Amino acid sequence: MDSEKQKELEALALRVREHIIKMSTDGGCFIGASLSCADLIVYLYKEVLNVTPATVKDENRDYLLLSKGHDVPALYGTLAELEFFPKERLKNHLKTTDSIYWHPNTQIPGIEFHSGSLGHLLSVSIGIAMDIKLKKASNKVYVILGDGELNEGSVWESCQVAAAKKLDNLVAIVDRNEFQANIRTEELSPLEPIEKKFEAFGWTTKRVAGHDFQALEEGFAKLPLEEGKPTVVIADTVRGKGLPSIEKRADRWFVNFTHEEIKSLLEELHGGSTTELKSKALHVR
């Protein structure tokens, strides 16, 4: 990847993070996991997916489904920046006059499927991938899973079916930020070694640094990784990435910041001093 391309992606990811922070007040949002997957979503839409605002209903487009629906501020921010809908619409977050809410809503251009309850969209992705196979088309289905979401049994049932159906047009991406809601994954129910678990279910695996665009380019360079098998890319990320005041904090998964905190956090995102947070930490289940 040349330096100009990297700068372009970094600038876009920074703007997406600004949107996420601005949606973290007046009712709040799930900021920690949104910031962890912002670079992943930006990279996929800019460098991998064959979909644009003009082809969003084209049956030959690539599909992206956000199974960890809590991260939708990152997806909304990316779609707005890429002109799937006007950026001004993000100001409607949590207003009853719009569908910009805490979880993906298909009323928003670019959103392929609703999500919120975890563990469902890998199976939905399998259905779409099978339909593409039946049509003998070449487009692909990408689904982003949370690492804590891997504790859902439905994920592993779906993995078994995807391998049995030889869905090499299906790519799962695991946002491995090491947290599940308000606790570390390895403290609640250890997930590692994730690669070996997917491989045991018949998948091919790749592990990458999820905030490094060069590493993401290498991770998604060849798909499928193996003909006849579904692929999973495990992206190691940091919850709250970009804001040192909330990075890797279990108590800042869902937040509802004050307007003063938002102003300070935007400055922090651009290299300012660490924000002194005074709003109450929230524990959400």
From TrEMBL:
Alphabetical list of Pfam families matching this protein: Transketolase_N
Residues passing through the membrane, by range: none
Cofactor entry: thiamine diphosphate
SUPFAM superfamilies registered for this protein in UniProt: Thiamin diphosphate-binding fold (THDP-binding) (SSF52518)
Source taxon at top rank: Bacteria
Residue intervals of the Transketolase N-terminal domain: 30-267
Keyword annotations of the record: Thiamine pyrophosphate
Family to which this protein belongs: Belongs to the transketolase family.
UniProt name for this protein: Transketolase domain protein
Protein species of origin: Chloroherpeton thalassium (strain ATCC 35110 / GB-78)
